[in-house]
Design goal:
By secondary structure, this protein is α+β, with helices and mostly antiparallel strands. 42% of the residues lie in helices and 28% in strands.
């Protein structure tokens, strides 16, 4: 069995103390970096939530397909005081040159807002 001499013990203790002291010197810089990363994380999280909401913007409430076209209702808003209803819908035509009976030519990805 080997025994540790006093000199080896002192060298080992000096190395440990030096490493410990060096580890404590960068603590403030690491705290600042950590705070910066946490604030960046909060900003990115809020941007992520915003983008998720934007993706749900044209999520269909009701969808119907007729005469080679797809009709999608994306939003319905009502105003009791003004007695109005606002319906937002998309008309996607598979044939862009197709003429409707109502006189509206449907184009791909048209967005119409009607208020009555």
């Amino acid at each position: 069995m080997t025994t540790i001499s006093m000199r080896q013990f002192l060298v080992l203790a000096a190395v440990v103390m030096t490493a410990y002291g060096y580890g404590q010197t960068n603590c403030d810089a690491l705290k600042k970096d950590n705070e910066t990363l946490q604030s960046t994380n909060k900003v990115l999280t809020s941007e992520n939530e915003y983008l998720k909401k934007v993706l749900d913007l044209n999520k269909p409430i009701l969808e119907s397909e007729q005469e080679n076209s797809t009709y999608t209702i994306t939003a319905v808003k009502g105003n009791k005081a003004g007695k109005t209803i606002e319906i937002t819908f998309l008309i996607e035509s598979k044939d862009e040159n197709h003429r409707r009976n109502s006189g509206i030519t449907a184009r791909s990805n048209s967005l119409l807002m009607i208020s009555s």
